[in-house]
Amino acid sequence: MNALTFKIELQQPLLVTQLGSHDENSAQSMEYIPGSVLRNALAALYIRKHNLDDAAADPTCRSLFFEGRVRFLNSYRADRLGNRSLPTPLSWIIEKDAISCSKEKSAEPLFFYDASLDPSAIRQLGNVKSLESQGRFCRLDDEGVELIRPARQVTVHIQRLHKRRLDSKADSQVFVYDALAEGEIFCGAVLATESELVEAIYNLLLEMPELQIGGSRTAGYGRIRFYALQQHANWREVKDIKPDDQEDVLIVTLLSDAIICDQNGQYVADLEPAVGVPCQHCFRRIKPVGGFNRKWGLPLPQAYAIQAGSVFVYPYSPELKKKLADLVEMGIGERLQDGFGRIALNWNLKPALSVYHIVTEPSLTAISLKDDPLSHAIAQRIVEHKLRKQLDQAIQRQVLLLNISGGSRAALSRVRLMARRSVLRRDLDLLKDLIANLKKTGRDNLDKTRIKTIKLYDWLRERLEKRDIEEQLGVSMERLPQVGDVRAQLTDGIKNEYTARWIEAVVKRAYKEVSHE
To answer: How far, CA to CA in Å, does 98 sit from each of 87, 102, 109, 125?
Structure first.
């Protein structure tokens, strides 16, 4: 297929927000530049250039932007060789212990497995996670895999509602923007069956190599520069795979989100309506997707899409292989002109691979709030709110993993009541007094409950003494919420409160276990 490839340099931070990724006082950008954003920006540029009153009536404008004959693919971050990276397949799995033991930029390779080729690897390894958690994008070659994660920039903005200088907290609002960092390089592509259409986009970018896209453009966001434009007569997203005599399956990997509808027009989480046969097994995630109509100034209807990186495995047949090869060229599903529905066929045929480059954590540019006491106070409330949310989620997650057995309902109920009062007071004295003044009968009743192999009485005394919620809940002290230069702190009050909450959650679950016996 005819293609125009290019690179995009972010001359300012870029904020292209995604659905459901932020709370009311923050915005988080996607990790790539969607094709729909480029299509809308170039359509607006073309309309301004030709001074069109009715763009839909212009045949060239229609063929470029409205008829689906030109496809604007997502722009993904450049790899270390300057080429376009691709979404990491969800079927790539790795042992959790291997991740924790690996060192950044270590000379030792980090091995992982492709479960689409070897489904038994999940059972054999046991405690595994998706490699996609270590890097949303990757480059695959004969040497191994390079994991890629774009750098990000966090900035704090303050909106004054009425006057420029105000002392009232009610008259100002803090916003946190988590954007793609300035200076990042992305690689994109535009596809068309006709070379004349590619030539038209090429000329348009040559005349106007700089644009502004995304949100908050008047606040210093969204300026990009196109360069390294190249036209290709037969371009492919994934290099051709060498024939394999042992080929017995067909593996489809989504290189972008795919919107698939069944015969009733309902969104589905499978490729069967487009492929025609059910898959043997799959590794997939579902996400909501939206868009924005710049003409009307309104959001597009939301839809459900299968996330990029999802993998579907099909039994081999020559007919199905030919059909899938055609879909690789044309795309699959809806909104193909916006870069949706790109797939790869048999991208990887090795069941075991290695990572030879581990990306660092995204870089964050912190803005100092020390000179503005009001903003500092608001930011402090924001990070504490996020910390509490993080700890609440950790409690819900960790309490389900505990092995709890036995117990006395009366003793458990009394401890739970005192834990609730300690939460409200953010003081552990009530619980400490209860445990310290227990008589032998009460202590024996508590000892009927075991947390793993530890008696509940001993477990309670240890928790009240250590207040080790970071260890108990698996909270990383290096990843506490942060806004600008304001970082959340595990203060004594929070430690007391969440030690009591943790005890209450454990005792509550033990009480339910006794009730079911």
So the answer is: 22, 6, 10, 11
